[in-house]
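Below is a filled-in request sheet from our internal design queue. Each sheet records the structural input a requester submitted and the sequence that came back. We keep these sheets so that new team members can see what a complete request looks like end to end.

REQUESTER: design group, bay 2
PRIORITY: normal
MODE: inverse folding
CHAIN LENGTH: 245
BACKBONE (tokenized):
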């Protein structure tokens, strides 16, 4: 891998995003809008918003980054751009790292806006530091980016890329502990949830919700989420195809 090539790839992706305001709005504004709606859905029950708002602060960015990244990467391949880039002295690792860096910068902006909105506008009540909350939200967005880059290799069209969301995201959403504690699930479902990264993202948010400092469980959870993002990016580089047939 080359640092210069990775940075050049990231700069190219960011220039493309600058001319695509709809994608920027989807990545940056939609999580904020969803949190805003959620707050007023539970307007009569602020404790409910506090209990699930922190978890969804991580889940919403993960979903939006997954969707946008998978479609954007697939569009590069179907248009022939990816094939032309890989014909140059540009490795798959450089390409994936460049995309991850570009979308990661967008994820930083997204996480800052969503976290600031939740804490200082919508009144999300958490015991832990806002910086810990921001860290988990950012890691979740990066995980969504990594998953989107990975699954784009297996889609032949943008429609198929969207279809991967129910297959990849929805099972994690159901088993992550948001609706019922994971230790109260059937043993088989609990075992499956233990290997899904979103479970640890929700657990990390729960730790921030109830503890003023970073706990050992919190550290374990964020390390697992970060490791999963790196692993998925590595798999994405290994499975990247030049073009879609």
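RETURNED SEQUENCE:
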């Amino acid at each position: 891998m080359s640092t210069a090539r990775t940075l050049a790839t990231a700069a190219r992706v960011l220039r493309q995003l600058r001319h695509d305001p709809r994608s920027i709005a989807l990545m940056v504004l939609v999580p904020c809008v969803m949190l805003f709606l959620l707050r007023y859905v539970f307007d009569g029950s602020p404790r409910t918003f506090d209990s699930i708002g922190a978890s969804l602060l991580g889940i919403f960015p993960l979903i939006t980054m997954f969707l946008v990244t998978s479609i954007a990467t697939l569009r590069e391949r179907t248009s022939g751009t990816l094939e032309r880039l890989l014909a140059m002295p540009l490795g798959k690792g450089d390409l994936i790292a460049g995309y991850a860096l570009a979308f990661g910068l967008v994820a930083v902006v997204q996480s800052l806006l969503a976290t600031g909105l939740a804490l200082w506008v919508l009144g999300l009540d958490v015991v832990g530091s806002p910086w810990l909350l921001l860290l988990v939200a950012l890691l979740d967005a990066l995980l969504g980016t990594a998953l989107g880059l990975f699954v784009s290799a297996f889609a032949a069209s943008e429609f198929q890329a969207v279809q991967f969301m129910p297959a990849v995201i929805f099972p994690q959403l159901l088993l992550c502990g948001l609706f019922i504690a994971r230790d109260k699930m059937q043993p088989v479902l609990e075992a499956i949830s233990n290997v899904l990264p979103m479970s640890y993202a929700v657990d990390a948010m729960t730790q921030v919700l109830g503890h003023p400092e970073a706990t050992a469980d919190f550290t374990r959870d964020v390390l697992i989420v970060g490791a999963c993002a790196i692993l998925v990016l590595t798999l994405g580089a290994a499975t990247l195809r030049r073009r879609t047939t």
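SHEET NOTES:
- The chain has one domain: 3-239.
- The two ends are 27 Å apart (CA to CA).
FILED BY: M.R.
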